[in-house]
Structures are given as C-alpha cells and as structure tokens.
C-alpha cells in the first residue's frame, strides 16, 4: 500500500497542479457565474493532455495509472469543480469506447478525444431510469444500413456541445439488462435527430452544463459499440472506474475547503484570540482532517486496486461513498468556520457547498453505493 507513482507521472501531476492553481482557480467563479467553463480554458488543459488522462499511450493518452490520475483530478477539482466534471464526463465517454469498443472504434475516436479535439458525453440516465438504468426505455431497432435510436436521455453532462455521445439503448426489450447495447452517436451526423433542451438550472457545478435530449435518429451499422447486448456490462465497468474519479473530485473540494478553513481559523480573531485557539473550532478542524485523510486513503486504495487489475467494484463504491459524504461535511463545516463571510459570494465556500452536493448523487447515489457494498459483503 505505497500509492507510489513514477517520476513521469509525478511530473504530470505537478504540471496539472500548476495549471490548476494558475489558470483554473482564478477562472472558477466566472465559470460558475457564466454557467459555462470557457472553451479557451478547456483548450489550455487539453494541451497538457488532461482530456485523455484515462487513456493508454497507444491511443494518445499519457498512459498514467489510476493513482496518479486521481491526484490530478483532485488538483483540478480543488481549483474548479465544473472543469473537473466536464473532464470526467469525457472519461466516461472514452472509457465506454476503451472498454466496450472494437479496435477500429478505439482508433477512430480515442486519439482525437485524448488530444481534446473532440468532446464526448455519456448518455445512460433517462427520466424514468436513473438509479436503475436497466429500466431504460430508449430503444435501438435494426433498420436498413444501421440502427434507429429513439428515446429521451436526461442530466447528460457535456451533451449539448459534445462531438459524440455514447448512447445506451435497448436492442432487445425482453432481455432485461442483457438487452442493452451502446452506440457512438456522432452529433454532427445525427444532428437532425437530436433535440436538446436548454441546460438544466443546477444548484452547483454550474460551469458544467447538463442536458436533457430526445434522440430519434438513424445511426450507421458501425455506431454499435463493440458487441450487441454488452452495453450494460460496459456501463457498469465504466462506472466502477468513474466512481474513483468522483471520489477524487470529492477530495478536491475537501482539500480546498479544509485549507481555506485552516487559513481563516488562523487569521480571524475573536476576543483577541485566533479562532483556531477555540476548542470548538479546533475540534471541527480535526474532524474535517480525519474525514479527508480517511477518504484519501480509501480513494488511493481503490485506485491502486484498479491499477493492479484486481476486482475493484467494492473499493471504488466505498471510496465514492466515504469521499462524497466527507466532502459535503467538510465544505459545510468550512463555511461555518467562515461565519457570515462564508455565506457571501466574495468567498468560494458557498460554491464548494453547492458543488460538493452532487457527488452523493451522480454515478450512483450514496444509497446505491451502500447497496453495492452490502451486496458484495453478503453475496
Ligand atoms: C449534475 C448532474 C450530472 C449528471 N451527469 C450525468 C451524465 O453525464 N450521464 C448520465 O448518464 N447521467 C448523469 N447524471 C444522472 C445521475 O447519474 C442520476 O441523477 C443519478 O444516477 C440518480 O438518478 P435519479 O436522478 O433518477 O434519481 P432516482 O433513481 O429517482 O433516485 C431518487 C432517490 O432514491 C434513492 N434510491 C434509488 N434507488 C434506491 C435503492 N435501490 N435503495 C435505496 N435508495 C434508492 C436514490 O439514492 C435517491 O436518493 C447527472 C446528474 C446530475 C444532477
């Protein structure tokens, strides 16, 4: 349990941390207020390889392990959680192709995605199927020369400006989750059959828009991702990986909030004494640190298991559950330590609280993580 990373990985972690501090952090409040991370910001991080961190060198990525990647996702989120959400949605889309696609599909899509030339999106959730995606109603029917995709997806990060969306749909409605397949939808080619609603008005991650869309489009034969009927298995494998990234994002908010709270508690004076001399405040800091450190260890443990290519379903669920719950607690306590100042938009604390709320919901809510963990213990 060393959580070691190579010298090359460390160099990339340092570069990404530097860009996060210098470029992402000063732009985070504007991305939140404008409800969109600027394209130029995404271009800048793409230049250091961030959009393809999850991909091997052969497909244009840096070929880093999950331990190093988690540390980079944490650094990006500590600076700007909206940017991290756009980036990790790209990972969900490209992981779908990496894990479920054919060699030709990997070669066709992934190097361009790794370079940030194209943006991807992961279309699993529907109005009637969130926590249980097997109940989806989007259908894909074979037609002359391809597939007819028909249905509605909701809360899909990046979808409205994505170049491709991996859409999960039922190719056999009688086969339960085994009847689910995935399709790579080229949004330019399918544009006449894609109808996007305006982005949702979300509580947090406002710089990372999420969309509902209706799809009623014919896609070519080779849009089918890999093998028919394998879509659900691919989605679950993608989410096992994605949950480590949600844990890493949770750590980013936790770290930023904890650092802000420690700073503030050292400077703010009450009755002539710094706040951190008050036991009630010092205990809060200790509890925040303990939750942060526990979540960090669980996240690195899950990442290390993923790198070791052993089954990491339980450890990624455990890391996501612990880290997302910790982030909510730490962001809230950090705001509390800032008193009224924390409630103003002059400080990032209120944004941390809003942004951290999603980590307990997406890629499987805390309740679903508990179900996964309990099932793995009792099965
Ligand atoms: C900002 C944002 C970005 C998102 N990005 C994406 C994306 O890019 N791609 C994508 O496909 N989806 C995305 N989602 C969707 C997200 O993954 C779902 O919202 C999430 O899975 C929960 O589904 P739901 O909203 O339908 O809630 P529901 O499934 O209706 O759940 C409602 C409540 O019931 C609880 N619950 C459900 N089942 C159980 C159970 N068996 N036991 C106990 N409690 C249960 C849940 O925990 C929750 O508290 C995003 C959502 C948001 C808000």
TrEMBL record:
Residues 229-377 form the Acyl-CoA dehydrogenase/oxidase C-terminal domain. InterPro entries: Acyl-CoA_DH_CS, Acyl-CoA_Oxase/DH_mid-dom, Acyl-CoA_Oxase/DH_mid-dom_sf, AcylCo_DH-like_C, AcylCo_DH/oxidase_C, AcylCoA_DH/ox_N, AcylCoA_DH/ox_N_sf, AcylCoA_DH/oxidase_NM_dom_sf. GO terms for molecular function: acyl-CoA dehydrogenase activity; flavin adenine dinucleotide binding. The keyword Flavoprotein applies. Residues 7-117 form the Acyl-CoA dehydrogenase/oxidase N-terminal domain. Its cofactor is FAD. Residues 121-216 form the Acyl-CoA oxidase/dehydrogenase middle domain. The keyword Flavoprotein applies. Keywords: FAD, Flavoprotein, Oxidoreductase. Belongs to the acyl-CoA dehydrogenase family. This is Alkylation response protein AidB-like acyl-CoA dehydrogenase. It comes from Brevibacterium marinum. The lineage of its organism: Bacteria, Bacillati, Actinomycetota, Actinomycetes, Micrococcales.
